[in-house]
Queue: 4 jobs
Job 1
Amino acid sequence: MKAVFPILLLFVAVILCPSGVGAQINHPAPAKQESAKLDNKIYLKTFDISALSEGKKSVQYVQVFSKGKKYMLNMCGKEGMPEGLTLSLYNSKRKLLGTNVINGKHQTKVTFPCSATGLYYLVYTLSENTSEAVQMDCGKSVLSLKFEEKD
């Protein structure tokens, strides 16, 4: 009798659950443009970085990455990549693993081959001398799983 109650409870929860629960992905306009560029990639998540437009110094997200997978992060604003937007990737011990700044230029994409499963910190910041117009352009960052095409 004790085993019947959990099964009955699960059955009732499934029946009473709203049917729209599975469709919670909501792509804002800039993220749709970046998602369209995902050739050999699978869309995973969109990070909202618009808080940088509201005067925040940084926006941080925690994400679990799996060993042996290759991830890609694309950053975009209303008018493309905001100049001065920096993404810093840290492991669970807060060791800096990489950034989107290469030779002083801010890249729109970062590819990360994961060597250990665990928590990773994604920290988005705007440089101090970023103009107000650029600050207002911060929008989204799209995370995707990258895979190699097989012939």
Note: Confidence is low (pLDDT under 50) at residues 8-36.
Job 2
Amino acid sequence: MLGDEATRTLDTVHELELADDLFERLSATHDRYHPQAYAFVLAALEYSQLRRPARGHIGGGELAWACRDLARDQFGLTAATVLSHWGVHSTRDLGRIVYQLIDAGLLISQPQDRIEDFDGVFEFTEAFEREYPWSGVHRNGGKG
């Protein structure tokens, strides 16, 4: 069962589906990412805002972590597979999507923002496989 944050985020994703035409055009223009990848990054931005005490600017690293958390919440063990299907294989890909959304006028950057802020924030293999939060499994060999 999804938590309140994930449920609100899913509602946001459904609202963003109304923008499918725009995402289709972005995908066709850049020919690298599935249209749902754009909707997902925007949903992760909102997901991150909901977890803060006040809305405000979100930097590249924070957004990348929000994408990881939302992917885990929304897709569970299949998160890496879903993101890969959408063409997203690294945090740099998340940055490219953000900057394509900026170029399309859907997001606004701050002067200090750089695409390099997304470089190497985390490794997908670590985030979605080795560090996956398995419930009921203890990392100390099952003791404790």
Note: Residues 88 and 94 are 7 Å apart (CA to CA).
Job 3
Amino acid sequence: MKPNFLRNALGALLLVLAFPAAHAQGASAPPTDAETGLVMAPGYPMVKAYCTLCHSAKLVTQAGKTRDGWVESIRWMQRTQGLFDLGSFEGEILDYLAAQYGIKAQMGGMLKLPPLAAELMPPLPPVSAPR
């Protein structure tokens, strides 16, 4: 391998690994509940009270769903797991889940990294003729 390729690949890897840390340092993160790990933001008390009755908060903090995805999960739990109707609290719970544990929140506000520049891509292997 060429030294430039290795240097460029290492640089790109360091950039990708350092970006979330740099992004996180720039914004002050809201406090989290020591017991559950849930972000303490509007709607947190309802989510802690209702969601952790049946399962670990880890199922919430690691999910990363859209609001529609959270609705679908709630409906599935109601159909198959015996979750009761959340009534007037459902909107507040969904607002919290989408804001704190939605796809954008899980990825630091980014949905997708930009494509790697062509000069940083590894060379393609030679194509062999079919036998």
Note: The two ends are 28 Å apart (CA to CA).
Job 4
Amino acid sequence: MAMKFLLALIFSISFNSIATADEYQPGYSRTRTCTRNEYKEEYFPGTEESPGYVESWTETVVVPCSTTGRSTKQARPSSKQTDNTDNNDCRDGSIIGGLLGAGLTMSGTRGKDRWWAVPAGGAAGAMVGCSLDGG
């Protein structure tokens, strides 16, 4: 009995989610501060007796956190995208043109030339039928 209880306790503890720094848990607040180091320079002009000099330092500045973590730029609203899909369907014209082209070459050729003329006529007829059908 104690072994089953111990096993159930181990499983219940191991399957609980552990909250990380950026994870949101319902009922709790979440804060995250994003910073950036900025390089600054200030020039102090000099005189003839005392030369001028440049003083430089870096400052840590709080910036808005981005959702991706890579950029703080706001996404531009997307413009209306046009769909460039070709809706011209020429299957019917291709089938009819192929059959007519093969039929015409079948009736116009004799002997050994039929083996290449009929497929060529079918292909040519299919192309003409497709262009006539609107494709």
Note: Residues 91-133 form one domain.
